[in-house]
Amino acid sequence: MSLRPLRSVLVANRGEIACRILRTLRAMGLRTVAVYSDADASAPHVAAADEAVRLGPAPSCDSYLSIERLLAAARRTAVEAIHPGYGFLSENAAFARACREAGLVFIGPPPEAIETMGSKIAAKRLMATAGVPVLPGTMDAGLDDTGLCRAATELGFPLLVKASAGGGGKGMRVVRDADALGDALAAARREATGAFGDDTLLLERWIEAPRHVEIQVLADTYGQVVHCFERECSIQRRHQKVIEEAPSPAVDAALRERMGAAAVAAARAVGYIGAGTVEFILDGAGRFFFLEMNTRLQVEHPVTEAITGLDLVRLQVEIAGGAPLPFEQGALRIDGHAIEARLYAEDPAKDFLPATGVVTLWCPPELPGVRWDAGVTEGTPVSVHYDPLLAKVIAHGPTRELARMRLVDALERLGVAGVRTNQRFVLAVLEHPRFVEGRIDTGFVDRWLPPEGRERPRDPAAERIHAIVATLLGHEQRRRCGGPLPASIPSGWRNNPWRVQCTRWRTAEGEIEVSYVARSGQRFTVEVAGTSCEAWVAGVEPPAEDGRVTALVVEIDGLRRRFEVRSVGERVVVHSRLGTSELTEVPRFPRPEHELVAGGCVAPMTGVVRAVHVAPGDRVAAGTVLVVIEAMKMEHPMRAAVDGVVREVRVEVGQMVDPDVVLVVVEADAT
């Protein structure tokens, strides 16, 4: 391959990875092009590029997964290359081949390598031939359910059902006995078809309490292949990584050398070019087995960048342009430790169900040793159409403990609201004694953080302080905007000054009532939860008299703090060093509550109905799967809460449903 430095690149992706790639491309002085769907017209990655092209409607199949539309965008903007990021078409050999045939440089490996490693079955066969340790399992492509059941009997339980194409935990199920195999195969096939367009499955021996350790590799067009050490990716939920770190607490120098050599052998065996990752399962005895090779940039690549000082995106672009690797294996060194946390829009207490909404507050703090890779800003909608990853935060330090403490500090200071996130869940993981000690495995979350313990508890004192601030915000906004009284009469004025004003707020933990009396000079006497205090609004941002307030400096009993505030209708978001609170003002004259459907099964999120397992008149037991909803590329079974009889089924397969829509009505048995 001749040296052909690139000058213009289209990024065929969205969200945080598109923003991250564009950042490096700009630093290299390249012309950049973004693409977007209708749902992403105002997304940050669109504004970050020199030019942007609309692909089509929100569904991925009509936008980010459309090869034809992506190539048309590349032709229209006359770019030389396409960077696929991760997800979507990043591991699609047909896309890589179409780019090549269109005269475009695909910033990734050859389509032949993608094809081989894209099939986990073909990859396992090749690795076994290359001498890389592989897990026992099926290596025959295209087995139907009968063949897989026969193979499962020979392999034994527990085992893992996996989609041969793709990754990210989609199309993956742990099966512990033969009775559960049929349902697992059906669900895995549906999920794999929806995510990758390929329902081919394989089986692997399930190893209890393994670690997930992967090796970053780089290969140029001149035959040089190096590894950039390992990443520990054992903290997972739904088989998807949540926290990653480099180096691994379980890998010493000797094991690192063996795993690195195996990863290099894997890359050579497939004729790899560019940046890729070879993933391994590591057992307690130090034995490792090939899991898969991701022929793309990984979500967790920043931790490798932090400990090596490399820019993996820059190296991808340079290699794609024909440049040789600028270093040899011996030149690479590990500098300190790095840990990354993924911030997802999801509800950890409800089995990590994806969440939707609009980001009303986004305040990532700038701190030493901390990097933010984000795909959202205030006003960004989080829809059902895409992966719920909002951002990543990466902390680096000379030791693992300092990196961990920096990451905890960054997450504590992060202000995010408008959509449910796993922020407090990640903090609970980072502060768990076993994580602190590095004693982790892929079953960590299920074993040590049951649903009731998956979030760091909220601080009631902080909630009360934030309720005071929300109340004073309302007072300040009324003062600025005026009201039914003459402007000369201040907000909060009473002809009987001993009469107090009261505001009630609904929070995640219950209700808080704040009473106050306004005095001169923006000073107040406040009572909340039976305790009195003196408050003073010492500063307001912005200072203009437009009624819009984004920050308050409030002193409560002599202690002054700065609070970020956002007001949307009856909801107020307050963020400070104490955390973030979302408060809804309780109307003085409450509206009648909606009538509840007894025994109803309701949609917990926006999604598409993929399966309906019951009909009116069916008898069901508690735990029976009634309906399956797909949201953000994952399937979510909706189960009966009680024993009873199905009276109504209000949805059908393919129907889009919104949160709180009744799906199935079950009449509970008399007790």
Largest sheet: 8 strands, antiparallel
**What is the 3D shape?**
globular
| Class from secondary-structure proportions | alpha+beta
The main sheet orders its strands as 13-12-9-10-11-14-21-19
What are the low-pLDDT stretches, counting only 5+ consecutive residues below 50?
Answer: 483-489, 591-597
The proportion of strand residues reads 25-35%
Distance between the termini: 76 Å
Integer-rounded radius of gyration: 27 Å
> Total helix count?
16
Characterization of the model:
By secondary structure, the chain is α+β, with helices and mostly antiparallel strands. It is built from 16 helices and 38 strands. The longest helix has 22 residues, at 460-481. Mean pLDDT is 91; it is low at 483-489 and 591-597.
